[in-house]
User: What shape does this take?
Amino acid sequence: MSCFFSFNKDLSTKNGFANNSLKRMGEERDKVDVDSLYRQKNTRYFVLSKSQQLIKNLHPFDALFTPEEIIILGGQLEEAYLLGFDENNAAFFALSVPQRDKYPDNIQAIDLRAITRSGLLKHEDLGAIAQARSLVLWHQSHCFCSNCGKKTKVIDAGYARFCPSCERRHFPRTDPVAIMLVIDKKGRCLLGRSASFPENMLSALAGFVEVGETVEEAVKRELFEEAGIKADKVLYHSSQPWPFPSSLMMGFYAQAATTDIKLNDELEFCHWFTKQETRQILENTHPKGFKPPSKMAIARQLMVGFVENY
Ligand SMILES: [Zn+2]
Assistant: This one.
């Protein structure tokens, strides 16, 4: 009898925004005395202004701010959301501060995508930064109850909102996205690009999971809708938080049952690539100048896994 179970190591640890080491204390958030934490000397804040990340111009760049620095930036400490605690039990919060034309000399507001592309920040901070960004942006867009339309208030140290009018609780959302590298019977993988990608960059195909659909079904549907490819088998690889604003990328390999490409409007280019060509793309040596996804992207890990293990 064959064995169904074959446990593999957790491949998500190599994905960008993974390895968030904060202890979230999810079961105890409603009991935490956050008022006593806001001004503690070792408390730290990740700070957004509008949707931009504030960072300090140090070497390396630093995304963490002290309570005193928050006050200088015009932030309200009591409006922060608790992310969790580090190994020394220091509290970490997320906070939005008013947007300014000019910040103090040592501080800049920067788009998080730019930060991740350039590797400006410490890798170990990126998971908590993703958590902070998704949480702040969720609060900004959920001030009113989706059930009755009345104003909601923050509860559970920032991990839920409560409507005093109809007593409904609202929780931060995460939108599942299927991303897949489909491989045909000749051992080639399918890569494509949409017009919004950086010039010459290719990636795996992806799309949001719809309601009433498994992620596996979404993999097959997206491949057919975007490229006209039918897939008959799927294999889960790993997942990745993607805080733009709050997606969870779920990566798969798929086995193609057909190879004729029929593009829809979402992609401007899509093509089958051999392992050798995919390796050239990853190494930036492809003769046509094709470029890989950023080192933060799960699509890149799918391509690396294909080249190294398929
Ligand atoms: Zn309500």
The chain has a mean pLDDT of 94. The first strand starts at residue 44 and ends at 49. The domain at 175-309 is CATH 3.90.79.10 (Nucleoside Triphosphate Pyrophosphohydrolase).
